[in-house]
Design goal:
With 58 residues, the protein is mainly α. It has one helix and no strands. The model has no long low-confidence stretch (mean pLDDT 86).
Amino acid sequence: MYFGNMFFGKSSLDVLLTLKEEQKKLEKNIDILKAKNAQAQKEYLQLLRLKGENSHEN
């Protein structure tokens, strides 16, 4: 028996465990989005640099 059952009951424990699982999923999603954002920023800055190089040629 989980110790939390004695204090919070089964329903509260289920909610707690569900929220903890949801938190893990959200934190993983945040890490994925941060990586995608970093890649997008890198590509954007490269495009700006290339655009700047091309504008000097005209």
